[in-house]
Write a structure and sequence with these properties.
Helix content of chain A: under 10%
Oligomer: heterodimer
Structural class of chain A: mainly beta
Largest sheet of chain B: 7 strands, mixed
Order of helices and strands of chain A: EEEEEEEEEEE
Order of helices and strands of chain B: EEEEEEEEEEE
Number of strands of chain B: 11
Strand content of chain B: over 45%
Shape of chain A: globular
Distance between the termini of chain B: 36 Å
Chain lengths: ~110, ~120
């Protein structure tokens, strides 16, 4: 129940295209859903986060879509750029509990 | 703030040797996490501390692994004896654990461990 399932494992997108990464969870107690971005040789860093009381959150080219009834959430990267090439982790947590991370998606944006 | 500081950044050792990884969390953060990252297993939580107290060590793979947090500004992860399968990047992260769940974790740069 603590798992967060993430797909796809890897993704190749043309420059200017839309990158979509999906995650699903089981624990309905989760109330905070962050996405982390990790560049090679670096630690993950918070990219954007959402709470289940909203269905969508947008920050620049990055959008989280949240479907509470389906227990799914996704990251959309609009107008993907080569600089977006990184590994993306979805995650979930609640209250004082530890953050549970997904397995990661390696995104490659090709020119 | 300098962020989470980890040392060493790279460690190469021989099987059977003791390895100690060090972490200095961000000042004021009350939670500290140790993760291991490999291609095969992704990002795994090994152990985390709240207010210097170990809360969940269920991710520690074996008794060869141990972690301590003697004070709010320092933690160690020790592997004794080390084995080739311990080769990975080890991350330390810290956060301000709040009851609202906004538990943003700040990761250090990682220690790349190679056990020959």
């Amino acid at each position: 129940q603590q798992q967060v399932k993430q797909s796809p494992q890897s993704l190749i997108v043309q420059k200017g295209g839309i990158s979509i990464i999906n995650c699903a969870y089981e624990n309905t107690a989760f109330d905070y859903f962050p996405w982390y971005q990790q560049f090679p040789g670096k630690g993950p860093a918070l990219l954007i986060a959402i709470r289940p009381d909203v269905s969508e959150k947008k920050e620049g080219r990055f959008t989280i879509s949240f479907n509470k009834s389906a227990k799914q959430f996704s990251l959309h990267i609009m107008d993907s750029q080569p600089g977006d090439s990184a590994t993306y982790f979805c995650a979930a947590s609640w209250g004082y509990q530890k953050v549970t991370f997904g397995t990661g998606t390696k995104l490659q944006v090709i020119p | 703030d300098a962020g989470v500081i980890q040392s060493p950044r790279h460690e190469v050792t021989e099987m059977g040797q003791e390895v100690t990884l060090r972490c200095k969390p961000i000042s004021g953060h009350n939670s500290l996490f140790w993760y291991r990252q490999t291609m095969m297993r992704g990002l795994e939580l090994l152990i985390y501390f709240n207010n210097n107290v170990p809360i969940d060590d269920s991710g520690m793979p074996e008794d060869r692994f141990s972690a301590k947090m003697p004070n709010a500004s320092f933690s160690t992860l020790k592997i004794q004896p080390s084995e080739p399968r311990d080769s990975a990047v080890y991350f330390c992260a810290s956060s301000v654990l709040s009851g609202t769940g906004d538990n943003e974790q700040f990761f250090g740069p990682g220690t790349r461990l190679t056990v020959l």
